[in-house]
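SAMPLE LOG
Freezer: B-3
Tube label: C17
Construct: single chain, 401 aa
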Amino acid sequence: MTLSRRHAYHVHVNMDDSPAAIPLSAGVIKRPTLLADGRELIYFDDADTTLGPVRGVDARVLDPRPETATMRQDILTGDWITFATKRQNRVMMPGADADPLAPQTASNPSEVPSMYDVAVFENRSPSFGPALAEAVGGAPSAPNAPRGLDDLAALGLGRTRTSVGRCEVVCFSPEHAGSFGTQSVTRARTVIEAWADRTAALSALPGIEQVFPFENRGEAIGVTLPHPHGQIYAYPYVTPRTARLLDSIDRTSPDLFARVLEFELASERVVLRGEHWTAFVPFAAGWPLEVQLMPHRHVPDFAALNDAERDELAPLYLRLLRGVDALYETPTPYIAAWHQAPVHVGRDSVRLRLELTSPRRAADKLKFLAGSEAAMSAWTAEILPEETADRLRTAIDTVTS
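STRUCTURE (predicted):
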């Protein structure tokens, strides 16, 4: 049987292929390697891993990666919209035998050649990249790449730029189904270490202005793969949401996050508190379920967290997610968005925080953004944040670990 170039595949394990072992915090080991088309793949081994150092070689024959997408500016808002048309063809809810995030087998030529604990790799059809720009002030390496924040802030009709950047997939487990909340504390700690490592690495790439780790969970959110995973986007601009935040900080004070945390700690909206982290339903929550998780110390991103903060985050975040799932008899769809400070601005004022939102307003009902919210960003909330906090505290209390 003759296979096409797209589907040609055979299993090949080079027993001499032992990626370099780089020790990280908490006993996690980082092992970087490459996929068949040159994309970066990084294994992050648990502190108590049962895996050996040898990893299989990706022997697939792959089509060339698509060209980097193009951004167009909306002159009415200043927002940049990236047009990644190749993403139209991505896989939709495959079965376990065709899971592209599972370890490769003879019948499943997936994206990860070997068994793993946590694996991070460049998305094959990204919204941003693979091209990168040179550092601000240097000549762009990609045609029509952004030339810094001032260039991106300028307004004009018909403005385009190349969507330089990087998009990565973070596999939380080799299992076919699950989410971050279904992982062990040890595995959660490994993922946190991976987020910190990738935040530092992506922030150092030319042309990157903001790094965003996130997890989409549930078909109601639009998830296309049931495999437990998240993503990391490295943007060539400061996102609109963060730009509005920076404006709020300019109009109030540089210690805005410290003031917000103090305000929430004195309220009945706190749902979970540790030595280094507090989770609360925010005062003006717009979604039926909305929770923020914030470190007590000012840190701009995951890379800046110390070991004690990372260690506490693993079990505390798991307890929060399991509490969210305990609200109803079936798992709750959500977006878990880890907001981090931009790479070059706001480092001393924008604090790392989780913003978890869900459209689920009852066991069998979802909130859809209709005219006022979708068109005008003028929100109407049906549930008081204090009521949500009370229900979530009760649900968290039922979670044993």
